[in-house]
Amino acid sequence: MLLQTIILTVVFATAYAAASNSTSSTMLETIVTTVASIIGAAVVVGLINQQQSISDSSSSSSRQRKSKRDDSSSSDTDISVEGSVMVTLPAWALASWEDYFTRKYTTDEEMMSLAIHLSDRNITEGTGGPFGAAIFERHADNHATLVSIGMNRVVPLGNSTLHGETVAIQLAQRRLGSFTLMLDENKEDGLFYDESHDDDEKESSTPRKRQFELFTSCEPCAMCLGATLWSGVSRIVCAATKDDAQSIGFDEGPVFEQSYEHLEKAGIQVTRNILREDAAKVLQRYGTSGRIYNRG
Ligand SMILES: [Zn+2]
Fold first, then answer.
1. Which of 31, 54, 77, 257 fits a 20 to 30 Å CA distance from 245?
2. pTM, whole model, 2 decimals?
3. Which residues form the signal peptide (predicted)?
């Protein structure tokens, strides 16, 4: 504010000097000089105010970010408190991105190995709970490619909904730009519809549903069963069991055999106990020292 006052004082002094200057200045020249000086000052003051506003806002945001960081024991916490939530993968996962995404996967065991690896590394790195997940797309010749990965991020990001499965589902949908993975590769809008009641649509194109499969290192909790149902995946494959998770103290919520039957009725194929022992070992390792955030 002091700077603006100084600028305005200088401008008015210049204008006054111009107005009372030599006899050669005409009245018109004096008016033009004065008006031009005032406009120039207004532009300069406006720029300064704008700059201060940007600077205030950015220092306020950085204060909030700093305060958040100070409150957290994790180094990779990244939560916006300004009306949005950030879901982030830990740095080690991003660094391994190319290794994960450039391969062609063929067997269930190979794909499950990645989900279990994510759960194991998540413990080692201290970036969340002992659960990993990955979503693959199955192609016509039966090989699969990786679409997204996820791991438990509940404690580091302060968000009870960030289980391995939900993180993988969110990132897959973000990548594909769709609220569902029920997609049709022959449709302009990409969405797959049940066209059995729509003869006109049926004749217009042949539906070809893309196949997305969710691999999870442990059978889903009640929340993730629901998320799986709404996600649009066509298959869920699980390693460790609900009992394995509960044996180290986790509460899995209301999950019943009928829950899986419901998924199958909805057209989602269920495969369980793929590499169960490997995944259970990761849970047991976490159970000896890790934080059980929703104890049963
Ligand atoms: Zn869950």
1. 77
2. 0.70
3. 1-17
